[in-house]
Write a structure and sequence with these properties.
This protein is an alpha/beta fold. The protein contains five helices and twelve strands. Helix 2 (15-22) runs antiparallel to helix 3.
Length: 279
């Protein structure tokens, strides 16, 4: 079998499944072991085995199924770590070297100052988090040392996001305490859906993909004409979208019920848009 095909199969299997797979045919054995020994990401089912291999330098993917776990200090070398719904966890200071970290619904976490170098970080619905200033860390000399993707959906305690200007993909859905997004103009993908406190989006014209769905406080979108993909679904405060004629990707105007133009007029005004959803 083509080694590339074996590799693709291995990425979906646990370590034990890879070993069982390799026993199907002796030809597979060397290929499978090669990927394990050369730190290809491998899913491990059991915590102790995950810790052991991670500490040896293997790239390990591990999901914690024991939601009552409190101490995660031994998991700091795991490459891809899913601790979602582990509601007893408070201290995550040891997880700063994890590459991809899911802490969604870990509702007791408050301090995330150690996680600024995590590449992909999901803190959605960690409602007690208030300070995210450390997550905008840009001291890394290469991109891999900086936080790339950050999901803070439902983190209702957050108000200040000024430090997150250099995050590549930033999701702030349902962060109702946020009002000022003027610092986020260089974020590539920015999700602000249901951020009802936001009114001024004039500094977001350079964002590539911008989701303002149901941001009912937004009224003026004249600065967003060069956004590639723009979602204004449910923005009932917006009345005039004539300035969006240069949007070339996707524009969603569903439920924008107070627009001053008819659908036929909108089709003419927004003729450059490839995918246009009308009210």
């Amino acid at each position: 079998m083509n080694p590339d095909i074996v590799y693709k199969v291995c990425t979906y299997l646990t370590l034990n499944e890879i070993r069982n797979f390799s026993n199907i045919n002796k030809e597979y054995n060397n290929i499978c072991e090669y990927y394990i020994k050369n730190n290809i990401i491998v899913k491990i089912e059991h915590r102790e085995e995950a810790i052991k291999l991670a500490n040896k330098g293997y790239k390990i993917k591990y999901q914690e199924l024991n939601e009552s776990i409190k101490d995660v200090s031994s998991l700091g070398n795991v490459h891809t770590l899913d601790l979602s719904f582990c509601t007893k966890i408070k201290d995550v200071s040891s997880l700063g070297n994890v590459h991809t970290l899911n802490l969604s619904f870990c509702t007791k976490i408050k301090n995330v100052s150690a996680l600024g170098n995590v590449h992909t970080l999901n803190l959605s619905f960690c409602k007690d988090i208030k300070d995210v200033s450390a997550l905008g860390n840009v001291t890394g000399t290469v991109a891999s040392q900086r936080l790339h993707t950050l999901d803070l959906e439902g983190c209702i305690g957050i108000k200040d996001v000024s430090a997150l200007a250099n995050v590549h993909c930033l999701y702030l859905w349902r962060c109702e305490g946020i009002e000022n997004v003027s610092s986020l103009g260089n974020v590539h993908i920015l999700g602000l859906r249901f951020c009802i406190g936001i009114k001024d989006v004039s500094d977001l014209g350079n964002v590539h993909t911008l989701d303002l769905g149901y941001c009912t406080g937004v009224t003026d979108v004249s600065a967003l004409g060069h956004v590639h993909t723009l979602d204004l679904c449910g923005c009932i405060g917006v009345t005039d979208v004539s300035a969006l004629g240069n949007v070339t990707g996707t524009l969603d105007l569903l439920y924008c019920i107070n627009l001053i133009h008819t659908n036929e007029e909108l089709k003419s005004l927004l003729s450059n848009v490839k995918r246009l959803t009308l009210p």
